[in-house]
Specification:
Layout lengths: L3 H15 L1 E2 L9 H7 L10 E2 L2 E2 L5 H17 L7 E4 L5 H12 L5 E5 L12 E2 L2 E2 L2 H5 L1 E5 L10 H11 L3 E4 L10 H10 L3 E5 L4 H5 L12 E5 L10 E6 L3 H12 L5 H14 L2 H23 L3 E2 L8 E5 L7 H10 L2 E2 L1 E3 L13 E5 L1 H5 L4 H18 L8 H15 L3 H15 L7
Parallel strand pairs: 1-15, 5-8, 5-9, 9-10, 10-11
Antiparallel strand pairs: 2-3, 4-12, 6-7, 11-12, 13-14, 14-17, 16-17
Helix pairs in contact: 2-10, 3-10, 4-9, 6-7, 11-14, 12-14, 12-15
């Protein structure tokens, strides 16, 4: 009898094949990566660094991890005498926590991007009246904001804030900031106040590797990244630090925060890194940005508010306030129509994170399927049609009424003919662009 779990996996495989995966943090990896991740390496324990393990029988996996570390430095063109790579962190948030644990003491000051402006939870998110994340409970956190008019950073304001707050570590990076970050300026600010500069390029790692976005090297002291977004690897993370912090970072990961590394994931990361050094990957990274810019332009030309006026990365953030639609309502309608995006807060959003004013979408996965500007125009046509169609559905004013409304709304549009009709068009469209097999 076949385990039902495999039936569900097959359904998910079909869903990924027949819909447009447009959440910026999702991507299609390579068959070789899946082969490595599903290998016998998941059966091995290897606490410690290569050649410094606690258990025996690690000669081969030592070679695998060392090869992965070598490829990290090679991909980002870094000198092994000046930089060190740790590939053991289980994911992005643990990687950032490992950096804090290595370089900071409880009570030290962290300065990071404000979450509703596009920052990330792992940088110490907290509410005015409540400590939300573990990091915020340990460290003193202050947030910098985007400019109210331009929705991009004013580095002079960030510097003034840093001079007053005097953080021990200054962090850049986030999940919904469409503009490139000036790593040189951020490093200069950090140096001026005696802080470490941590560049979190979880979203942009593949774009940096492919030359489509600016590199945080040599400006940052530490760079963290996830490996499953634009880098097209498996779930995992990488910490790259200046050589003088190597011992502190390594011991912070193990035994400071976690046990044995996931060797099967490390092998998958190594495979993805090898792919990232090919000419094809460089073309891919460039096309990801071209596609995103084209999507942003069409949305802006249609009269919608594209946050920061466009994009320089792989993602687009749209404030739907002008259309009087809500991000949660629009995102769910898109899902019924076979286009998977996500609701998202926008800078200075008056709405709550559960019912935000914006939507976020990106191009890493659809570009991996071979789609280019022509296809972006087709996709945008569907998206604008959905937004216009859903705009009359207005959210009530209070929380309880909103929850009731959303429950009824979801049930109603499951059978909506227009949305289901688009879903069928999307499915036929996707058949022309197979899920990557190489």
């Amino acid at each position: 009898m076949k385990d039902k779990i495999f039936e569900l996996i097959k359904k998910e495989e079909d869903r990924q094949r027949d819909t447009l995966m447009m959440i910026p943090s999702e991507n299609y990896t390579y068959p070789e990566v899946r082969q490595a991740v599903g290998s016998v390496l998941m059966q091995k324990y290897a606490e410690g660094q290569p050649k410094k393990r606690y258990y025996q029988g690690n000669g081969i996996v030592d070679e695998i991890e060392e090869l992965c570390e070598e490829r990290v430095l090679k991909v980002f063109k870094l000198n092994s005498e000046k930089w060190s790579a740790n590939v053991q962190a289980y994911s992005g948030s643990p990687a950032n926590l490992a950096v804090y644990n290595a370089l900071l003491s409880p009570g030290d000051k962290i300065m990071a991007m404000y979450l509703p402006d596009g920052g990330h939870l792992s940088h110490g998110w907290q509410m005015p009246d409540k400590k939300i994340t573990f990091v915020s409970k340990i460290f003193d956190v202050s947030f910098y904001h985007v400019d109210p008019k331009t929705k991009v950073f004013d580095y002079d304001k960030i510097e003034k804030q840093a001079l007053i707050f005097k953080p021990k570590i200054l962090i850049s990076g986030g999940t919904a900031y469409p503009s490139e970050i000036d790593h040189k300026k951020m490093a200069q600010i950090a140096k001026k106040v005696g802080a470490y500069y941590l560049a979190d390029i979880a979203h942009e790692a593949g774009l940096v590797a492919g030359g489509a976005n600016k590199s945080p090297f040599p400006y940052a002291d530490v760079v963290t990244m996830t490996t499953h977004k634009t880098l097209r690897g498996p779930r995992g993370a990488i910490i790259i630090c200046r050589k003088e912090y190597e011992e502190a970072i390594d011991s912070s990961v193990f035994p400071g925060l976690q046990g044995g590394p996931h060797l099967h994931s490390i092998a998958g990361i190594a495979v993805a890194l090898e792919k990232a050094m090919t000419p094809g990957f460089k073309k891919y990274a460039s096309q990801v940005v071209k596609n995103a810019r084209y999507l942003a332009k069409i949305f802006a030309d249609s009269g919608l508010d594209v946050v920061s006026g466009g994009t320089e990365k792989h993602l687009v953030l749209v404030d739907l306030t002008k259309s009087k639609a809500n991000g949660a309502v629009v995102a769910y309608a898109h899902e019924i129509a076979g286009i998977v995006i996500n609701k998202n807060t926008t800078p200075f959003d008056p709405m709550t994170p559960f019912y935000p004013s914006g939507i976020r979408f990106g191009t890493p996965a659809i570009t991996a399927r071979g789609m280019k500007e022509k296809e972006m125009k087709t996709i945008t046509g569907w998206m604008l049609k959905i937004i216009d169609y859903i705009s009359p559905y207005k959210l009530p004013g209070n929380k309880e009424a909103r929850n009731t409304f959303m429950k009824a709304f979801k049930e109603k549009i499951k059978k909506d003919e227009l949305l289901l009709g688009i879903a069928e068009e999307v499915k036929n469209f996707c058949q022309k662009f197979p899920v990557p097999v190489k």
